[in-house]
Design goal:
This protein is an all-alpha fold. 67% of the residues lie in helices and 0% in strands. The longest helix is centred in the first third of the chain and has 27 residues. 43% of the residues are buried.
C-alpha cells in the first residue's frame, strides 16, 4: 500500500475480486442449477452470494479517506467535493433506474425503484457527509447509533397490527415501509433486498469501511496487516455474537450482518495485502486490478448484457438459453448441471474481465 500516493493496490485487487464475484453470482447459466454458496439466503442466514454486495459498500467506504485526502491535497475545496459527490449520486441513481427499466423492457410501468446502484448512491451520500464533516471517532459513534437504532426499530416498533419484533419474511417492518412508500415499485419476494429501511444500516457498512480505511492510511506499513486482521476478527466475533439475538439477514441488513460481512471483508483484504504487498506476488492479481479500476462501469455493462441475454429471441427462447443448452452444455459434458451453470457464469465474468483489461491497457478510466 502506498499511502503517500493515496492509492491502495490491494484494495484495487479486492474491489476487482468483488466485482467478478458479483457478476458470477448474478449470471448463472441456469438458475435451477446453482451451487448453494452462490444462492442468496431466502431469509435468515448468510451465503457467499450475500457478502459480495456488502463488501463493495465496505470497499467504497474504505476508499473515502484516501480519495478525499487526495482531492484536498490537489486543492479541492469542500464545495468542489460536494459537487463531485452530488454528480456521482445522481449518475448512480439514473443508471440504476435505467438498468431496472432494461430488466423489464418494454413493460416499464411497474418500474422497480430500489436497486444495487441506488443503494450505493445513498450510502455514498450519507457516509460522505459524515466523513467530510467529522473526525473518525464520530464515524464510529454514528455507525453505532444507526445500527442500534435500526435494531430498536425492528424489535420495538409495532406495524400493521403486528407487535414489534416480528422478523418473518411475510411480516416485518422493512417490508411494511416499502409497501407504503414504494407500493408495486419494489420487489416483494420476500421483500426488496435494497429497500428503504435497510439502506440506513448499509450506510453504516460504508462508515465501518471508512474507519478501516482511515486506520490503514494512518498506520505504518508494519502495522497494517495487524490492523486488518485484528479488526476483522473483532468485527466477525461481535457480529456472530450479536446474531444470537438479531439474526444475520441481508434483506433486512441487520446490524449483525453488517459486522459479520465487514469482518470478513477485513480478513479478505488482509489476506490479499499479505500476498500482494508483503510477499510481492502480484502477477495472479492483474485481472482483478483491471476490474478494480473501472468497477461500476464493468458492473453496469455486465448487468445490461445479462438483461439482453435474457431477452426473448424470436419469441421462442433467449440467447442465454441457447448458449447454455445448445452450446455450453454439449461442449462441457459435465455430469451435473451445476458445473455447467458455474462455467457459464465464470465465462461471462471473464469476458467482462477482458473488457476491463482493454480499458486498463489503454489508460481509460470511466468515472461512475
Amino acid at each position: 500500500m502506498r499511502a503517500a500516493a493515496h492509492h491502495v493496490e490491494s484494495l484495487d485487487v479486492f474491489r476487482g475480486f468483488t466485482i467478478f464475484s458479483m457478476i458470477v453470482v448474478n449470471n448463472p447459466g441456469d438458475w435451477n442449477a446453482v451451487f448453494p454458496p452462490l444462492v442468496h439466503a431466502y431469509w435468515h442466514g448468510c451465503a457467499f452470494a450475500d457478502v459480495v454486495f456488502p463488501w463493495f459498500i465496505f470497499i467504497m467506504g474504505f476508499a473515502m479517506p484516501f480519495a478525499f485526502a487526495r482531492r484536498r491535497d490537489s486543492g479541492h475545496a469542500r464545495a468542489q467535493l460536494y459537487r463531485r459527490i452530488a454528480q456521482r449520486v445522481a449518475l448512480l441513481i439514473v443508471l440504476g433506474l435505467a438498468l431496472n427499466a432494461a430488466a423489464t423492457w418494454p413493460d416499464v410501468a411497474p418500474l422497480r425503484v430500489p436497486g444495487v446502484l441506488q443503494r450505493l448512491a445513498i450510502c455514498y451520500l450519507l457516509a460522505s457527509v459524515v466523513v467530510l464533516h467529522f473526525e473518525p471517532p464520530v464515524w464510529a459513534i454514528a455507525a453505532g447509533i444507526v445500527l442500534a437504532g435500526h435494531w430498536m426499530l425492528l424489535a420495538l416498533m409495532p406495524f400493521d397490527g403486528f407487535a414489534g419484533g416480528s422478523l418473518g419474511p411475510d411480516h416485518n417492518l422493512a417490508g411494511h415501509i416499502d409497501a407504503i412508500l414504494l407500493g408495486r415499485h419494489a420487489m416483494t419476494t420476500p421483500i426488496d433486498p435494497e429497500g428503504v429501511l435497510g439502506t440506513l444500516p448499509a450506510a453504516a457498512t460504508a462508515l465501518v469501511g471508512a474507519l478501516a480505511g482511515h486506520r490503514v492510511r494512518t498506520s505504518s506499513a508494519a502495522a497494517r496487516l495487524r490492523v486488518l486482521t485484528a479488526g476483522g476478527a473483532v468485527a466477525l466475533i461481535l457480529g456472530l455474537a450479536w446474531s444470537r439475538a438479531l439474526p444475520l439477514n441481508k434483506h433486512l441488513w441487520t446490524g449483525s450482518f453488517v459486522l459479520v460481512t465487514a469482518g470478513l471483508a477485513l480478513l479478505a483484504l488482509g489476506a490479499i495485502y499479505l500476498v500482494v504487498d508483503v510477499a510481492g506476488l502480484r502477477r495472479w492479481s492483474r485481472p482483478f486490478v483491471w476490474l478494480g479500476v473501472n468497477p461500476l462501469a464493468i458492473y453496469c455493462a455486465s448487468e445490461l448484457g445479462g438483461h439482453l441475454l435474457d431477452a426473448a429471441w424470436r419469441h421462442r427462447t433467449t440467447p442465454k438459453a441457447w448458449l447454455f443448452w445448445s452450446v455450453l452444455q454439449p461442449a462441457t459434458g459435465f455430469r451435473y448441471a451445476e458445473w455447467t451453470s458455474l462455467a457459464f457464469a465464470i465465462a461471462y465474468a471473464s469476458l467482462w474481465t477482458a473488457v476491463a483489461g482493454v480499458l486498463y491497457q489503454r489508460g481509460i478510466r470511466i468515472q461512475v
